[in-house]
Design goal:
The protein has 11 helices and 26 strands. It has about 425 residues and is of the alpha+beta class.
């Protein structure tokens, strides 16, 4: 559980001017961490501050930061830092905050420790051993469930536990990498079987939940310790081939419809940074079983994060148009909290590893504007874009852009950067 300290002070300012702009995603109160490199250089840890990346290796070499957490953060992935647990990331955050604060002597090292954002190439922040995706939005499940069973739209277990499936870790990719339209098998409306490029490619607006620490196999994680297992959060696009998904789901759940690719944002907003944005979790009916309940979770388990998904088509790009917002949703409305996801995942003794990734599930809300995927938006017909184009599903060349911002009274808003990817044409099927 994250406690507020001097790093959250809304009056805190940085000697790096762009970090003090009101529109920045990365003020000194944020300090998200990721992995970056530059041509000819090895990947290493960095922290976003304003319009630059703080090179943690350079800062350590200049003796501006020190200690085991700093040493762990300069490697090619964040897994070593994640393995050290939340106290390590909190200690590093305090060091970096003090170093970047207005009046700190580190300002004289600016040229050697700060890399302009446009010169940094972002990498996947951690080596992902396991990726599990949840389904925690009441509105998402209810909307799509009506098509299956109007009288019982929710999955039977939805109100009792956070439903999830084990997805594909090897196809998790960092923001900016194109997503190839997958080939797949499905049944057409006329009953004919098809195989070829999906005709129903979709996005799903989600949060990424990154795991810290490790529990031994056979050792559960109770709700009292679940918050301490969350290293931080990012953005996640659970790309979905809906025609393939409808055909393959009844026997065992999602498979090839989901493993095609998963895009994640490069910056991880640490759980410590989000302490000012904790809010009460939604009331559950019926109440959760005791193992999924705690006083802290009821009062602080949700996060006030406003999330958006936008589309940029080839025509919009050619005409210089801005991305068109398809979805605006609030993460705090999710029926199940991140802590409940962690506890339920480990309730059978599953060993969660440092750098494991959880997807929150589609972050849909009750408003029409909060439908967080095209499957929901399309229930009332295709969406019309400012160019006059329409979309029922994504077309080749379309780009989906996710953004998010944590907001709360009395706190400096903090952002997550972007998670974006362009749809590339399906590869040709191999000729024998």
């Amino acid at each position: 559980m994250a406690a507020r300290d001097a790093t959250h002070d809304p009056a805190l300012r940085s000697w790096f001017a762009s970090a003090n702009e009101v529109t920045t995603d990365f003020p000194i109160q944020n300090l998200p961490i990721g992995i970056f490199d530059r041509p000819g250089e090895a990947p290493r840890g960095g922290i976003a501050i304003g319009e630059a990346v703080l090179d943690l290796r350079a800062a350590k070499d200049a003796r501006l930061i020190a200690g085991d957490a700093a040493e762990a953060a300069i490697g090619p992935t964040l897994n070593r830092l994640m393995a050290m647990g939340r106290p390590a990331s909190a200690a590093l955050r305090r060091q970096v905050s003090a170093m970047l604060a207005a009046g700190a002597s580190a300002a004289s090292h600016a040229e050697s420790i700060l890399v302009p954002m446009d010169r940094a190439r972002m990498r996947l922040p951690a080596k992902v051993a396991n990726f599990s995706d949840f389904m925690a939005s009441y509105d998402h499940c209810a909307r799509l469930g009506v098509r299956r069973d109007p009288k019982n739209p929710l999955p039977q277990a939805f109100r009792q536990l956070p439903v999830a499936y084990h997805s594909r870790a090897s196809s998790v990719r960092v923001s900016g990498e194109p997503v190839a339209r997958p080939n797949g098998q499905w049944q057409a409306q006329d009953g004919a079987m098809r195989f070829g490029p999906t005709e129903a490619l979709d996005y799903e607006l989600e949060l990424a939940i990154w795991i810290a620490g490790e529990n031994a196999l056979g050792t559960p994680v109770p709700m009292s310790r679940a918050p301490d297992r969350i290293f931080g959060y990012g953005l996640l696009n659970d790309w979905s081939a809906r025609d393939v998904q409808r055909w393959e789901m009844p026997p065992l759940g999602p498979f090839l419809a989901k493993s095609l690719s998963t895009s994640v944002s490069p910056w991880i907003v640490t759980a410590e940074a989000l302490a000012p944005f904790e809010v009460a979790a939604p009331v559950q009916d019926p109440p959760a079983l005791p193992y999924l309940d705690s006083a802290w979770n009821r009062s602080n388990g949700a996060l006030a994060i406003r999330m958006t998904a936008a589309i940029l088509t080839p025509r919009m790009r050619a005409e210089g148009a801005a991305p068109f917002v398809l979805t605006e949703a609030q993460f705090a409305r999710m029926y199940w909290t991140a802590a409940a996801m962690v506890t339920h995942h480990a309730s059978n003794g599953c060993n969660l590893l440092p750098g494991d990734l959880l997807g929150s599930g589609t972050v849909s809300g009750p408003e029409d504007t909060a439908r967080a995927c095209l499957a929901e938006i399309g229930l009332t017909g295709p969406v019309t874009l400012p160019t006059g184009e329409t979309r029922r599903w994504l077309q080749d060349g379309d780009e989906i852009v996710f953004r998010a911002r944590a907001e709360a009274p009395g706190a400096v808003p903090i952002g997550f950067g972007e998670c974006r990817a362009v749809i590339a044409p399906a590869p040709g099927w191999p000729q024998e």
